[in-house]
Amino acid sequence: MTSPETEQGGVAGEAQATPEDGTPRPEERLERAVRAAEQALIEYEIAVETFRIEVENFSRLHHQKLGPMYARLDELDARIAEARAARTGDPEDIRKADEARGRVMPMPDVEELFHGWMDGDGLFPEAAAMLTDQPVRPPQRVRPSDEARRLYRELARKAHPDLAQDDAERARREEFITRVNGAYARGDEVMLRELAEEWAKGPEPAERRPSRSEELYARLEWLAQRKELLSLVARELEEGAIGSMLRLAPDDPDRLLEEIAEQLLADVASRERELAELLEG
Predict the structure, then answer these.
(1) pLDDT for 212-224, tens place per residue?
(2) CB-CB neighbours of 82 under 10 Å
(3) Helix (H/G/I), strand (E/B), else coil: 181
(4) 279 Cβ partners below 8 Å, 6+ apart?
(5) Residues contacting residue 139 through CB under 8 Å, at least 6 positions apart
């Protein structure tokens, strides 16, 4: 199977003949612009999706690994405030103690009830697995291995839905890419290799036929709009709490989790000493 770049270069060259003086026709230049914009968009989508998966994995692992430490800190803060209020009897200290205890045991609302189970797209895979008695496979690390990343990027370039020329082909590619994204999020190299073999055996994408100038301009406009939407997604990811944390350690996000855990353990030890001193005094 030829690469998208090879496919597109060949079609563009065959679709439009150049005048005898060698100057490309306007339609040919437009075709080249569309091809370049498509490839740029695909690379950008790959980068955004890669970062989104890292943010999602980091958030989930952060909650799984560090959640108990945060809960312990909240409990210690509440007990420290209560011990201080009991000692002083000051109304302000009593108010602060009540607030601290309230943070430990908040009244759950709908979002809290479903936290970790579902989002706007429905049940998380882990939640669905638990409800159907299937084994749960949480991510083992924030960033999948280098080999998984290579396989993912290769598959994303070859099977990207934006390369489809009709609705049926787009649907086939979208379903396939959904499975690719799931395997990459889990860091499942074996599944990614199997998907690569599956794609290689599948039907060849239909050849791109010459488009009318109006269609090409519409295509360029759609690509620009898609790029703008992706820019908004990327900005939200980067400016979010988890994305901001990831930017602190772009080369080794898994190590960042370990560093945060070490700091939280130190904070817990400090709070425990403070509580002990209050209770002894």
Answers:
(1) 677 777 778 888 8
(2) 19
(3) helix
(4) 83
(5) 57, 60, 61, 185, 186, 187
The Cα–Cα gap between 190 and 106 comes to: 43
How many CA atoms are closer than 13 Å to the CA of 240, on its beta-carbon side? Answer: 16
- Helix (H) or strand (E) run with residue 173 in it: helix 167-186
How far, in Å, CA of 64 to CA of 77, rounded?
21
* Tokens encoding 224: 């620009």
Residue 242 DSSP label: H
CB 53 within 8 A of CB 125: no
Contacts of 163 (CB under 8 A, 6+ apart): 4, 38, 42, 173, 205
Predicted structure pTM score: 0.55
CA distances to 118, 132, 182, 184, 229 from 136, in Å = 15, 10, 13, 16, 33
Site of tokens 């519409």: 218
- Rounded CA gap, 123 and 70, in Å? 25
Sequence-separated (6 or more) residues with CB below 8 Å from residue 104: 71, 74, 75, 78
- Per residue in 77-98, pLDDT (tens digit) is 999 999 999 988 999 989 999 9
Q: For residue 194, what are the CA distances in angstroms to 53, 125, 205?
A: 20, 20, 19
- CB proximity list for 30: less than 8 A, separation 6 or greater: 213, 216, 217, 220
DSSP E strand stretches across the chain: 118-119, 122-123
